[in-house]
Amino acid sequence: MLAKPQISLGIKEKDLNKMPLKKAFNDDALNTRQKRNMSIAGNAINITRRGIQGDNLVEPLPNFRRTKSETIYEGSNNTSIVLGRDRPGEAGSGYGNQTGAGTIDMVVGRVSSDIQQSIVNDQSLEVESLYVDNNLSRDASRIYISQKTDVDTNFNLPSGLVGESKAKAAIAIKSDAIRIISREGIKIISQGDKANSHGAKIRTIPAIDIIAGSSDANNEPIVKGKTLRKVLKDIMTRIDELNSTLDTFMTAQVEFNAATCAHEHPDPMLRFLGSAANGDQFSVNNGKVPFSAELLQSGIKCFANQSIAKTDGVINKLSSALTEMNISEVYGAKESSSDRVNVS
Questions:
Q1: pTM
Q2: pLDDT at residue 11 above 50?
Q3: pLDDT digits (tens, 9 = 90+) for 263-321
Q4: Distances in Å between the alpha carbon of 185 and those of 130, 188, 191, 226, 340?
Q5: Which of 104, 219, 228, 256 is least surrounded by Cβ atoms within 10 Å, i.e. has the fewest?
Q6: Cα separation of 103 and 173, whole Å?
Q7: Where are the beta strands (DSSP E) in 32-97?
Q8: Which of 210, 211, 143, 206 has its CA nearest to residue 171?
Q9: Count of helix runs (H) and strand runs (E) in the chain
């Protein structure tokens, strides 16, 4: 049967290692004869079929419903390689009834979460063998190599930017944990040829999706380090220019405020009064309007605040220079580019 959508159980990543493990030896699904042989004290079967140092190990094995066209190589511990046609679920699923759908299905642990060999008929109470099909959700580990298949639909994968692959060659790897280990570098390339497996020309550069949590709802484009470094450097340069502009403005404003708060200008009336009193037009306050005490007070306060602002501006300019060096230079402590992982 086709894999059903998996439901999130809300298990946090840090709690995965705390989840209970399977039994080291689980004989719950063994048939009656197997259990009887395993329980006989001193029986040679009981000793030699516990898997000690590579000896045979008796364990429940599901009965796979095979088709006539499939060639199957099976091990004795729920391992198999099936050579046939596209078959993501029951016989007849996928493109198994079409040409050009050759498939190699490598499976370890069919229906691993709930292995059953047989069932009891409720009416006759007779034990009947239980057969299973491919189950892409419940089988433990699988490498599925197909010439023609709907890989995204079969494995219930989100479309992402790449989109869904329909009736095309695909390889899928699925297990509880997957590691890709290389001693001399790993390359993920989304366009290796000019045409696909059907001979159709590939007209655009295919995308690469990295999706966590089986949902592409929050996917965003990945950042290119060198480009980001250049953009950040440009932004920091603009900030530095604004800082300089503001400092120039504040310097001019301080000078203007100092001149304004202590400013005195000629007053014709005072000069007339001085001339009339003693013949000296400058005898009354030198013939000028006296400065405003309120304006002088406000000017002193403004001068103090602007002096602090200019000091902060100098410190900010130094901090910006250090920040620019840290985030936009190759040797920067917070430079965002990886020196080992590259993207196009």
A1: 0.68
A2: no
A3: 777 777 877 777 777 877 777 777 777 777 777 788 788 888 888 888 888 888 888 88
A4: 46, 10, 18, 21, 9
A5: 256
A6: 14
A7: 63-64, 71-74, 79-85
A8: 143
A9: 6, 11
